[in-house]
Amino acid sequence: MKVILRKNFDSLGKTGEVVEVKDGYARNFLFVNKIALPATEGSIKRLEIDKQQAESGKKKEKKAAIELKEKIEALSCTITRKTEQENKIFGSVHSADIAEQLLTQGITIDKKKIEIGEPIKEFGVYNIPVKLYPEVEGIIKLWVVKE
Length: 147
What we know:
Blueprint: E1 2-5, E2 18-20, H1 23-30, E3 36-38, H2 41-74, E4 76-81, E5 88-93, H3 95-104, E6 120-122, E7 124-133, E8 136-146
Parallel strand pairs: 4-8
Antiparallel strand pairs: 1-2, 1-3, 5-6, 7-8
């Protein structure tokens, strides 16, 4: 019996593939656990439509990420902190602080996407990478200055 996989399955294949399996295995395991669908003409057409919709959705997300990257790279963020010593910050600057600063400028970014590495503990200018989409990464120019 031919079936279309709805999920990745190690021993059979990846999502969307049409594979040949024994009838009992398909009826008693794959269909019951919603891992596969029978490979009828209607389900194959539905699979094609789903693939096209997913592809167009990914293109829209990537386009939006590229536009957001351009906005981010056009601005410069400034965070003020109190000083502890000459060039040391009282406390530190985290990705949440950067996300909050971007929010005041009208850009909403999840703090988990800001790849700061370690918290910033000195004054200066930093280029902070932001992962917006798998192939799209923006750079925020961050100024950490004395209050």
